[in-house]
Amino acid sequence: MSHQPPWPQIPPVDPRWRKRARLRIQALAMPAGALGRLLDLAVDLAGMAASLEPALSRRSAVVMAADHGVAAEGVSAFPSEVTTLMVRAFSRGRAAVNVLAAQAGARVIVVDVGVKGNLTDLYASGHVLDRRIAAGTGNMLRGPAMNRGQALRALEIGLAVATDLAGETDVFVTGEMGIGNTTASSAVAAVLCGVDAERVTGCGTGIDERCRRRKVQAIAGAIARNRPNPADPIDVLAKVGGFEIGALAGLILGAAARRKPVVLDGFISGAAALIACRLSRAAGDFLIASHRSAEPGHAVILEQLGKEPLLDLGLRLGEGTGGLIALHLLEAAARILSRMATLEEVGVAPAAAP
């Protein structure tokens, strides 16, 4: 099925560079496979970068922020106003994403694509990019979350942000903020993965079982009412998604088109990746799953994407936090590939290798 506007051409990962990386790893001064999945990550990075010295020093964590009308159904432990408060915390450098970004040597870019609260002072100061589509999505239990034009606009915003940042970014980390966005992500996952709402719906912000059941009912009701077409990811985004989910999907497409690795955070980033990969399968070659979220739907999404996460720490905060933690593993993999001595260099004959 064709979609308008046309999505950018994403170059395939060059298998020759993956082969070169494997040959170099085989020659390194260690037993075969001794560093386990770190070596698989090194091969992935070499293929993405078309280099045995993949660049990772310039790191951008992009946090897309938006509100969700479905929050009015009592599906979250917090009210929508918390989205605005957290964006302000990001601007002051005091949230978890800021702390972990500083540790990982990454900058944080916050983009308002649909926050209900007034952030004009943060636009003026440059702390937040103003790409606001509307004051939050509609309540998907009562009708579509957005119209198709707004869904396309969200994707275009993400594409443009990726394009603007690509010249000064080696690796992207996806982040988000939006009360109600695990509900939207569960709905997107249920439709695109072909499973029922119960299987992909967790406790989000820490709700109890009674509230989780209400959340499941809201998701199932929204899908039944809006009947999103699983063969059309833009229709799914429009009917049961979120502005920040669409913007992250666009960011993934834009970054992949520039051969930039994209480190996915958790559940909401996973939902965005599903949409991006349905629009362009080649985007998946540039995705690295940082961790497996405590949200049950995330495992379903990762299986659909064919990605094995690097970490499983029970994280469920979002913001890009898991992706930022995983940057340390990317750095380790790249350094092993480019800096470690070979058996020949340390004077060990291959036959005498341990």
Short description:
The protein is of the alpha/beta class.
Strand order of the largest sheet: 3-2-1-4-5-6
Task: Give the N-terminus to C-terminus distance in angstroms.
Answer: 53 Å
Provide mean pLDDT, rounded: 95
* CATH homologous superfamily title of the largest domain: Nicotinate-nucleotide-dimethylbenzimidazole phosphoribosyltransferase (CobT), large domain
From the 3D structure, determine the CATH topology of the largest domain. Answer: Rossmann fold
Helicity, as a percent range: 40-55%
Based on helices, strands and strand pairing, what is the structural class? alpha/beta
What is the radius of gyration? 20 Å
Order of helices and strands: HHEHHEHEHEHHHHEHEHH
Count of strand segments: 6
Task: Specify the overall morphology.
Answer: globular
Question: How many domains is the backbone divided into?
Answer: 2
Low-confidence stretches: none
Q: Report the CATH C-level class of the largest domain.
A: Alpha Beta
The largest sheet is: 6 strands, parallel
> What is the percentage of strand-forming residues?
5-15%
CATH architecture of the largest domain: 3-Layer(aba) Sandwich
Number of helices: 13
Description:
This protein has 354 residues and is of the alpha/beta class. It folds into 2 domains: 15-53 and 337-352, Nicotinate-nucleotide-dimethylbenzimidazole phosphoribosyltransferase (CobT), small domain (5,6-Dimethylbenzimidazole Phosphoribosyltransferase, Chain: A, domain 1, Orthogonal Bundle); 59-329, Nicotinate-nucleotide-dimethylbenzimidazole phosphoribosyltransferase (CobT), large domain (Rossmann fold, 3-Layer(aba) Sandwich). The protein is 47% helix and 9% strand. The chain has 13 helices and 6 strands. Strand 2, helix 5 and strand 3 (128-130) form a beta-alpha-beta unit. Helix 1 (15-27) packs across helix 2 and helix 7 runs antiparallel to helix 9. The longest helix is centred in the middle third of the chain and has 19 residues, at 148-166. The model has no long low-confidence stretch (mean pLDDT 95).
